[in-house]
UniProtKB/TrEMBL annotation:
Native organism: Jaminaea rosea
Highest taxon of source: Eukaryota
Name of the protein: Putative sexual development protein
Region (Disordered): 241-269
Length: 349
């Protein structure tokens, strides 16, 4: 629990959270029942909001305590960035409290915070960049959540709540991108995602989550973006993921029964893997992957495959958030859902 009583503040504590958030928990009617898909979607929202609370609480703590790496605020004053992130923290607490209130009203299991969160940031700039990536993912999955709610008579009243959160999270992203010296809006249409992709992505940053058992989603293998693509060089990306060690897809040019940990394919060799990129609201883009030559002679961990794939940035205008899925099917995939079904790992952000 946080010092302000979150995630279960008493009325006085909630009033203080609302004051900092500059707004309140919605006081309109909540659903009395929800269908299974809507429950899963709402639980995923609450699970993500818990992680966002932890992320912004860590940012506020690091800024407040003058932690190493948290003294350069990209031209802003310490007082200003503290005000920004204390406000955002309180707003995310309100989001989480509201999602759990709807679940409780519908008689569904509510979501508790995880025991541990770990974020890939050691500086203020990295922390804000990660916040931007997470928020972009949230905006993508809320598209799927709204569609799920709209299909159900019982959940349809929550569509407006989701649309309101989309606008609020979009306001946040504008500031985060400004800190990174980018234009506030990244794309004409935000990159789509779905609850399964979001669930997979979040597993990289959490552990010891008591509520995971209540969410009817199966976690897939994560993908780590080892080297993101850069405009200044040939556009490629390097990804790593854990292969299915019991029945791994055969790599081109190898015996399918070969132990791939003892006899790994040669760097630069073709593979049976493909990378599919999800960007904006466009159809997925799939490209073939090659086994990467690890830098400085480093070797991936046992059971881990490291691949290199083209990143057609300019050809497909892959700006803003792009999700990378790894699979053994070359596509083409007509929809996001088809690409997810055809993948063995992902997404990488």
């Amino acid at each position: 629990p946080l010092a302000d009583g979150f995630p279960t503040p008493n009325p006085a504590q909630l009033a203080k959270i609302e004051e900092t958030a500059m707004g309140t928990v919605p006081n309109g009617p909540l659903p009395k029942k929800l269908d299974p898909d809507s429950i899963t979607a709402l639980q995923l929202v609450a699970f993500n909001e818990m992680m966002e609370v932890a992320l912004f609480n860590s940012l506020v703590t690091n800024i407040t305590t003058n932690a190493k790496g948290y003294s350069d605020f990209q031209g802003e004053t310490k007082d200003y960035v503290l005000k920004v992130f204390k406000t955002v923290l309180a707003q995310e607490e309100i989001h989480a409290i509201s999602a759990n209130a709807a679940l409780k009203s519908a008689g569904a299991p509510t979501i508790a915070p995880c025991g541990s969160y770990h974020f890939p940031a050691t500086t203020f700039e990295e922390g804000v960049l990660f916040a931007d990536e997470v928020t972009a993912l949230v905006l993508g999955v809320l598209q799927d959540v709204a569609s799920t709610f709209a299909k159900s008579d019982d959940a349809r009243g929550l569509v407006g709540l989701v649309a309101s959160v989309v606008g609020q999270e979009g306001e946040q992203r504008g500031y985060y991108r400004r800190v990174g010296k980018h234009v506030p809006s990244s794309l004409p249409f935000g990159t789509q995602a779905n609850v399964q992709l979001a669930w997979n992505a979040l597993q990289q940053f959490v552990s010891d989550c008591p509520s995971a058992k209540d969410i009817k989603l199966k976690a897939g293998e994560p993908v780590t973006v080892v080297f993101p693509p850069k405009e200044s060089v040939t556009a490629t990306t390097v990804l790593s993921f854990k292969a299915n060690t019991t029945n791994p897809p055969p790599l081109a040019g190898t015996d399918k029964n070969q132990d791939k940990n003892k006899h790994p394919p040669a760097p630069g060799a073709s593979s049976s893997y493909f990378v599919t990129y999800i960007n904006q609201l466009n159809t997925p883009v799939t490209v073939p992957a090659k086994i990467n030559n690890p830098p400085h002679g480093a070797k991936p961990a046992p059971g881990t495959v490291e691949i290199m794939a083209p990143f057609p940035l300019h050809e497909h205008k892959l700006n803003g958030l792009t999700l990378a899925l790894v699979g053994t099917q070359k596509g083409p995939f007509a929809t996001l859902e088809d690409a997810v079904k055809g993948s063995v790992a992902g997404p990488g952000l």
